[in-house]
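Bumping with the actual sequence this time:
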Amino acid sequence: MYILTTAAASTGAGSGSLWGMLGIYAVFALILYFLLIRPQRKQQKEQQKMQNSLKNGDWVLLNNGMYGKVVNIVNDCLIIEFGTNRSVMIPVLRSQIAGVSEPDLTERKVEETAVEPTNSVVGDDVAEDDLDAYDKKILEKGEKKGFFKKK
């Protein structure tokens, strides 16, 4: 009988720490829910809403990076027209649509900048026809190994 009363007394004292541990786990579970699970579910709902609102004539971006125009919708399959050659039509699953956006086909002109040529073989530290001792040594080693052929 004495053993049972001491065991009951010791479990009573330990139950406070048990509730504390459960409280810590509950706090971690709430943090994980609000930081990871909830935003992902919200993003999935928005993606599903976008995919369900597609209609004929919409430009779409597929998961593989290709743009196309929706021509026909059959259940979960969309018939998409690719490119400017109006004969390429491919069926695509609705779940493979990443977004609704039209491709930017405007041509951008790159500004050409004048690049001054540099003499990287000889070095930038010497005058045009004047070689210093180090550059002569490098050229002689290259000739010995067969990198440069004399004319």
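The tokens above came from a reply further down the thread. The chain has two helices and five strands.
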